[in-house]
């Protein structure tokens, strides 16, 4: 069964790319939903224009870049990815009978958080998240905004109460980051930790200064 990965319009498309790369490297299948707003963010942050008719080509270009925009050595297996248009409310992930392991929203904008918390289902991303909650499947929401106002905080509490895991996109520095990609990978790794997906994206804390090693 696949994981649904929803990409909303918040800044932080490198986080989504890192999660997608790690899922594919772990041999996981992915159902991808890219919101309309996130296409504008992706264009602004990477220069990539994500097109429905050429999604495989555009996704490959996106995942083949590091957080600094330079070419990476990763060669994604896009045969494991199924793409759904965010406006297609008749798509598979809109139904609870469609088998998936769970859903990761990365990055999650405050507008996306509000829509999911209120059950608005205005597009496939929000609908899939609502279905994930009602089916009691894992939902990980990587919110990327600062500062957070009281309304958004209450909505995040509502998501937590509904069973979602809220993972703020907050990089840590104890893992020995030396490049921006290390910080991105830490956040992506924490998202995957919340979903229970094995990865080796960052060095885990071992309880001693300077200890720990990158997971294999």
From TrEMBL:
Dimethylallyl phosphate binds at residues 174, 190. It comes from the Bacteria. Keywords: Flavoprotein, FMN, Prenyltransferase, Transferase. It is an enzyme of class 2 (transferase). It catalyses: dimethylallyl phosphate + FMNH2 = prenylated FMNH2 + phosphate. Transmembrane segments: none annotated. Residues 2-194 form the Flavoprotein domain. GO terms for molecular function: flavin prenyltransferase activity. Its EC number is 2.5.1.129. NCBIfam families: ubiX_pad (TIGR00421). Belongs to the UbiX/PAD1 family. HAMAP family: ubiX_pad. Flavin prenyltransferase that catalyzes the synthesis of the prenylated FMN cofactor (prenyl-FMN) for 4-hydroxy-3-polyprenylbenzoic acid decarboxylase UbiD. The prenyltransferase is metal-independent and links a dimethylallyl moiety from dimethylallyl monophosphate (DMAP) to the flavin N5 and C6 atoms of FMN. This is Flavin prenyltransferase UbiX. It comes from Streptomyces griseoluteus.
């Amino acid at each position: 069964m696949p994981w649904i990965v929803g990409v909303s319009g918040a800044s932080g498309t490198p986080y989504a790319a890192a999660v997608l790369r790690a899922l594919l490297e772990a041999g996981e299948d992915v159902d991808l939903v890219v919101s309309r707003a996130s296409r504008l963010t992706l264009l602004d942050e990477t220069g990539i224009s994500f097109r429905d008719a050429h999604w495989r080509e555009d996704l490959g270009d996106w995942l083949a870049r590091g957080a600094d925009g330079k070419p990476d050595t990763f060669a994604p297996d896009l045969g494991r990815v199924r793409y759904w248009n965010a406006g297609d409310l008749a798509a598979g992930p809109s139904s609870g009978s469609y088998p998936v392991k769970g859903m990761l929203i990365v990055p999650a904008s405050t507008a996306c958080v509000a829509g999911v918390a209120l059950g608005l289902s205005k597009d496939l991303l929000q609908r899939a998240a609502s279905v994930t909650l009602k089916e009691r499947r894992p939902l990980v929401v990587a919110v990327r905004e600062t500062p957070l106002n009281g309304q958004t905080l209450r909505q995040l509490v509502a998501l937590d109460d509904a069973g979602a895991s809220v993972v703020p996109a907050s990089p840590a520095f104890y893992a020995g980051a030396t490049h921006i990609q290390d910080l991105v990978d830490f956040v992506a790794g924490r998202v995957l930790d919340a979903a229970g997906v094995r990865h080796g994206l960052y060095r885990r804390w071992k309880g001693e200064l300077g200890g720990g090693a990158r997971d294999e």
